[in-house]
Write a structure and sequence with these properties.
By secondary structure, the chain is α/β, with parallel strands linked by helices. It contains 6 helices and 6 strands, in the order ββαβααβαβααβ. It has a 6-stranded mixed beta sheet with strand order 1-6-5-2-3-4, with helices on both faces. The N and C termini lie close together (9 Å).
């Protein structure tokens, strides 16, 4: 699903893409769904927030495996590992999109149970609420 904020005024989407990467099946699905756009982009930034939080999920170098995969398919890929330093992951993603002048955020949408969402919130919901650029989400 592509969600475009009301404040979006640019004519282009997908020239500078930020992939919010946590190596989950939802993130892999989102990257796969966005693949037609990735090879045509000017820049594809893979953002790994708090890469040491789930070391078994990422492998030796967080973001490297997906970067290699996407580069083999012609995407101009760069990886950024970022520590949130106590900020929310959603804020880290939105701020990185702004910092890199992204015109599309690609991310997986993970569904939590309702009670867990009330307690912990949702990265997906927070990104959608605070973003100033279009977001392609997959579940």
């Amino acid at each position: 699903m592509l969600i475009v904020p009301n404040s979006w005024t640019s004519d282009s989407v997908g020239t500078r893409i930020l992939i919010a990467w946590n190596a989950s099946k939802e993130a892999r699905r989102a990257a796969t769904d966005a693949s037609p756009l990735l090879s045509e982009a000017e820049l594809v930034k893979i953002l790994v927030v708090d890469p040491n939080r789930n070391p078994g999920r990422h492998g030796e170098e967080p973001g490297a495996n997906i970067a290699l995969h996407l580069a083999r398919h012609g995407a101009p890929v760069d990886v950024e590992q970022l520590e949130s330093d106590g900020a929310s992951i959603a804020d880290a993603v939105v701020n990185a999109a702004i910092r890199h002048n992204a015109d599309l955020i690609v991310m997986g949408a993970y569904s939590h149970g309702r009670s867990r969402q009330l307690l912990f919130g949702s990265v997906t919901r927070a990104v959608l609420k605070n973003t100033t650029v279009p977001v392609l989400i997959s579940h």
